[in-house]
Each structure stands twice: as C-alpha cells, then as structure tokens.
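We store chain and fold; thus.
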Amino acid sequence: MPDTLTHALFLPLLNQSFEVQVEEDILPCELIKADVYPVREKVDPATAGGRAPFSLVFRGPQDSPFPQNTYLVKHKAFTQPLSIFLVPIGPDDQGPCYEAVFF
C-alpha cells in the first residue's frame, strides 16, 4: 500500500477520526490538514514513489501526547493499518499535533 499513498487518497478523509496504536493504547486522532508540497523541479518517480510530495497533520487527544515514532494508523477507508512515521509539531488550541511527510 505505501506506493499508493497520495494526497488525493487522504483529502476526502479530512476532519475524520483515525485510530493510532500507541503501545497498548488505541488513541483517536483527527486528520486536520493535508498539503501538497510545491515541486520546483521535476519529481523523479523512482525517488518519489510516482507521487507528488505531501504532508498530513493529525491532532491527538489533549491528555495523551505521544513521542515521535512509527505507528499503526487505522481508518475505515483502509483494509489494513498503515505504518506511518509521526512527528510531534506542537499543540494547537485543541490538542497535540503530529505531522507525517511523504516524499
């Protein structure tokens, strides 16, 4: 599935809840942002997986921040969990936020 992860796949899932497995806990996280990075030069499909680079921002629960790591992320739109590297980028007014970047 990693070759098929694109910005277009996640765009319809904005503002929807995902489940992130953090050790033994399953935490609800909302997808709050999906951005495409501007490409200044031609993207080499061999290094970009045939897709434009993009990022996702998730917001987690206020009382359960978690560290940078690779996590299993589930959504009803996917038949299997995705393994996504999430990096804390600081809280917004509703909770801690995490970014995943796909090149």
Observations:
- The mean pLDDT is 90.
- The two ends are 15 Å apart (CA to CA).
- The beta strands are 17-22, 25-36, 54-59, 69-74, 82-92, 95-102.
- The first strand starts at residue 17 and ends at 22.
